[in-house]
Amino acid sequence: MEKSAILSVLANEIEQGRLVFPTSTNTAIKIKKTLEDPDCSLDAVIRLVQAEPLLSTKIVAIANSIVFNRSGKKITDVKSAVTLIGMRTVRNMATAVVVQQLAGSQAKNELVSQLWKHSAHVAALAQVIAHRITHQDPDTAMFAGIIHEISWFYLLAREKHYPGLIDENVASSWNSNEDLEDKTEVECEVKIGTALLHALSVPDPVIASIVYMWQGDLAFPPASLGDTLLCADQLASIKSPFASPSQQGDRDATSNINLLADQETLRDILKDSEEEVESLTQALCS
Hints:
By secondary structure, the protein is mostly helical. 66% of the residues lie in helices and 0% in strands. It folds into 2 domains: 3-20 and 106-285, Orthogonal Bundle (Hypothetical protein af1432); 23-101, no CATH class. The protein is built from 17 helices and no strands. It is globular, with a radius of gyration of 19 Å. The chain starts with a helix and ends with a helix.
């Protein structure tokens, strides 16, 4: 089946409300919903996080990153980590775990691994860019960055039902220039991703910014959350395996971005924040 036909079928499935999640993702979604219950006490949150190894590992790692832990005092337990980073970040990490697990255990491991590393790096860059350049909420920017590849995780999960969807030959065709010109395919990809984000109760402004990232052109100077994500995606040294050829290349994205606030260049800002980005990327990849 041609790629465009597969995308159309998947988009129609989603329009009919037939989202198919792996068992591990369904479990993570239940945890996420429980954490979002306003009546869920702090003690209940801690017990819930402790019972989910991937989530607890990420939360402790995030709490030990330079961005959240300026004191440098080592955090070794979930209770201290949750207290330090706050419930909002805990909930965001629960959503991140859902996205990471979307592909399931049977998906192509190398593609999943690269896609997650790319997502983590974009999230870390977005956090810094939001704080230092676009003056958006840094936590929201990090959250949007970590989930922005959600449609690809889902497509990787569905590959077993559509053999050849993500095989070596087709994978290379996903990022050809010809494909990028097919508006119908792009619309299907956006439809799939948007439906997934709504299903996970991602706030509408965040969804709109991620869709802008998928469809839009970077404004100069970057100002919105969508611009923040686009900028981070352009600058990420770890590229998505489904990125276009120009994104896969070695072009210097900073050359396209002019002087920013306080006469600092983006290059200088990112150099100054290099340790923060590296620390946060590693925490998100844990």
